[in-house]
Amino acid sequence: MKNKLKRIDLNYTVYLASLHLCDFARKIFITPSRKESKFFSFLKIHLLIIGIFIFHNSITFANVHLGSDQQYKNIEAAWSAGAILPGDTVFLHKGSFAGYQGISKLKGEASNWIVITRFQNDSIDISGCWQFTSCEYIKLQKLNFKANKTFPGRLINVDNGGNCETQAKYITFDNCYFSDVTDVNAICAFKFGGVDNFEVTNCVFKDISGCGAMDYNVCHNGLIKGNRLENCLTGGHIKGGASNITMEANLFINASQASWVAFELGGDTGAQFYCPGDNFEVKNLKFYSNIIVGGYRGLALSSAVDCKVVNNTFYNCGQATLRFLTTSSLYPKLSDNIVKNNIFSFGQSAYINGSAQDSAAATLSNNIYHGIITKDFTGPYWDTPELNSIKEKEMKIFGSSTLMYVDAAKNDFHLNGKSPAIGSGVATDEPIYDFYSNKFASERSIGAIQYIDSTTGVTDVQIDEITLFPNPCRNELNILLPYAKALATLYIYNSLGQQVYSDFITNNIEQINITDFSDGVYYLVLKYGDGTGYTRSFSIIK
Question: Are 186 and 213 in contact (CB under 8 A)?
């Protein structure tokens, strides 16, 4: 409140000075015998309007700068001083921000979110946990969270302070980078505990060896989309009475180690953590258009209710690709889950496991079971008799001689033109979009990626041109293309227009080592042999 009053006082002084200047001008140019001109009356009215505008924006819009040479050293200092108000943008300047930061009840407004981001293209590192308790309308974007030897543990904690009446609400993380958490006591690198109406999009979780990447407990109404989880102990879980959350178009690469899974829909939660009315472990979770590659295990449905696993691609998990478990102490029963239109590609281990389930636990239909090693693949092993009641009755089984993908060895999971997954999906209202944000066709493909016949130009889908991530980046830049085309040439130019890199690419997923590049803005140009191409900009921060 003190800071708000200071902004009002300052701008009110400016406004009064403007009115005095107007009166001074009127006295100089207007004699006693002459009436005040319409011009000065008009000017006064406009000054009044401008004053009102200044007051409004002084309360809701300002820039708050953080850094070693700024007014506030860190975000907790700015929050403690009352310097962050609805509509403000908080800029982090170049440098390291280390140590625990606790922020409580920081609230933007529906039309005036508080945005926390880096200043211009400054290189920043954040270590030590940032905790936001019972906050609202907060967006964090383009931030780099990286654990280290001094602070090896959790990076983000957003929570309700242990009270369901004070849930955090409207929290967004976009285009952020989380890495290098090694502390086994951290439980997870990124935790939401009591958050409603949230989004976590276009983020990277990488090299998180000590704990899970991200956990969502006691959360409702969320979107987790377009994230990359790589080299993690586990991708994490959703549990604790969580509901109405969609996980869509996320990429999991080696995202689980023994004995964990890439992700778990459900789990077990202490009775004191559930919110009133949440008489289930998880309900109405949607797992759509995701790709899971490698790792120890794939996806677990654990005491889940009314959850949907549709149009995903699973490839070469080390042990069980799919699990059905009754883990919750209070709400153990699995019921009314749907698993359809997925591709399960098995390597050395072709295994679907779980505890004893009845027929109401899940309905599996129209999935492809694909052996990538054995030509005469006969399907996966299902735990028997535990899963007999839900085992898919008419499995679509294909062996290693079947051309399923364009080049799975290079993580290109676009469907081969001869893939049996093309046009074989059963009709469903969701998901609408595939992994690359292309719209699923009326003749839906099975798996995470809708097939587009680029040779005939038959595209009743919308094509998203090219995706770069992470952006900003540090050491590696990943390039995702929407569909296979002929050989392309890739060029990178710096802000001066100088070419600093070129290469030929043949895959739909490419990774470029940019360790030797300097900080700054770059331009990526992709040119195909048919004359088409794309241009995208990206930033490097170190």
Answer: no
The alpha carbon of residue 416 and the mean position of all alpha carbons in its chain are separated, in whole angstroms, by 28
Q: How far apart are CA 126 and CA 140, in angstroms?
A: 13
- In whole angstroms, how far apart are CA 138 and each of 15, 135, 206, 265, 388? 31, 7, 24, 26, 47
Cβ partners under 8 Å of residue 25, min gap 6: 40
Flag whether pLDDT at 487 surpasses 90: no
What single string gives the DSSP state of each residue in 305-333?
ES-EEES-EEE--SSEEEEEE---SSS--
Q: Which are the contacts of 327, defined by CB distance < 8 A and separation ≥ 6?
A: 266, 267, 268, 281, 302, 303
Number of H helices, E strands in the chain: 3, 43
pLDDT tens-place string over residues 28-52: 555 554 455 555 565 555 555 555 5
SS (H, E, C) 144-206: EEECCCCCCCCCEEEECCCCHHHCEEEEEEECCEEECCCCHHHCEEEEEECEEEEEEECCEEE
Grouping H, G, I as helix, E, B as strand and the rest as coil, residue 63 is: strand
Q: What is the DSSP letter of 442?
A: S
Residues 6 or more apart in contact with residue 80 via CB below 8 angstroms: none
Do the Cβ atoms of 500 and 494 come closer than 8 Å? yes
Describe the strand order of the beta sheet including 467-469 as a list of residue ranges: 467-469, 476-480, 509-513
**Count of CB atoms situated within 10 Å of the CB of 111:** 9
Q: How confident is the model at residue 326 (pLDDT cuts 50, 70, 90)?
A: very high
Q: SS3 for 71-107, per residue?
A: CECCHHHHHHCCCCCCCCEEEECCEEEECCEEEECCE
pTM assigned to the model: 0.80
Angstrom distance (rounded) from CA 275 to CA 255? 30
- Determine phi and psi for 310, rounding to 5 degrees: -135, 135
Query: Which pLDDT tens digit goes with each residue over 269-288?
Result: 999 999 999 999 999 999 99
The span from the CA of 260 to the CA of 300, in Å, is 10
Q: Is the peptide bond before 385 cis (omega within 30 degrees of 0)?
A: yes
